[in-house]
Amino acid sequence: MTTDAEFEAAIAGLQNWVGRERVVEDEIGLASARRIAGMLDIDPASLKQGDVLPPHWFTMFFPDIAKQSDIGPDGHPNKGVFLPPIPLPRRMGAGRRVTINESLRIGTPAIKRAIVAQVLPKIGRTGRMAILTMRHIIECEGRTVAVDEFDAMYREAPPPGQPTAATPPVAAPDSAAWMDKKLLSSPLVFRYSSVTWNAHRIHYDADYARDEEGYPATVQNGGLTMQLMLDAALKRAPGRIIGFTARLARPLWVGDTVALCGAAPADGKMECWAADKDGYLCAKMEVAFA
Q: What single DSSP character describes residue 30?
């Protein structure tokens, strides 16, 4: 086992990845848009070639498509294929900061510029961690559609037979002005993983999630949690969405029902949060409107 100093040195050795950029192309195809619509319980036939998509849907395009031989045992692409080879085995989404200028249009090609923005080591109560920040710049016809900074947390594996360490639970606010409830069914999570081309096994392989990563059940996809929170907020939107910030606080489990809550909009913003079946805070978000 390496020392803390050796771990920090290993992360420091990855700083040559910071600033690296690759381009992911997507034609924003009608079939892809209809699959997303169906997954979100929208009539797929309502979408036509040339339609403008909801502004926040850009997060479900531009997947990283690895060769099957480049997929690791956890279902993610192997370290170093797309992302820095951080020497920690467990990876989960943590949060994001997004600005949105306009929307994608079905049938109009666009690109994602994926830039490694930061690799930061941390040593805390639950052990060694590293935070990888990716900056995704979405461009279409020479214009910036959106800028999405996404944080992923890498952690140590728990000892065999031990649960993954979790942060102490915090009660969700009890001051919601509105609430929607959503069943995180296995088909919903599977379909979201499919449209985003995410093969991380913790989202669909219960034996792997329990035996290898120390979770009690299959884990809800954090990107889907953010998508559902945004959809709930936009039903009460005072204007056009121009951005949001989000932070994932606690895992949700596939098969549970999540409460999507929010405050009344004020000064062009809306505070939102997600609570699990026990009333604990799992995610929080601030949505900005024009």
A: H
What's the chain's length in residues?
A: 290
Contacts of 27 (CB under 8 A, 6+ apart): 107, 109
Ramachandran angles phi, psi of 102, nearest 5°: -160, -170
Sole residue written with tokens 């065999």: 160
Burial letters for 16-49: b for 16+ Cβ neighbours within 10 Å, e otherwise?
A: ebeeeeeebebebebebbbbbbebbeeeeeebee
For the segment 105-147, what is each residue's pLDDT rounded down to a tens digit? 999 999 999 999 999 988 777 788 899 999 999 999 999 999 9
What is residue 70's three-state secondary structure? helix
pLDDT on residue 236:
94
8 Å CB contact between 55 and 105:
no
Tell me if residue 81 falls in helix, strand or coil.
Answer: coil
Q: How many degrees, rounded to 5, is the angle at CA 130 between CA 258 and CA 194?
A: 45
* CA distance readout (Å), 28 to 24, 117, 218, 234: 12, 26, 30, 22
Question: Mind listing the pLDDT tens digit for each residue in 59-99?
Answer: 999 999 999 999 999 999 998 899 999 988 888 888 899 99
How far is the C-alpha of 157 from the C-alpha of 89, rounded, in Å?
6
C-alpha 212/C-alpha 162 separation (Å) is: 10
Query: Six-digit token pair at 148?
Result: 């999405």
Separation of alpha carbons 8 and 13, rounded Å: 9
Read off the pTM.
Answer: 0.91
Cβ within 8 Å of residue 247, ≥6 positions away: 94, 95, 283, 284, 285
Q: What is the DSSP string of 186-249?
A: HHHHHHHHHHTT---GGGT-HHHHHHTT--SSPBPPHHHHHHHHHHHHHTT-SS-EEEEEEEE-
| 3-class DSSP state of 278 | coil
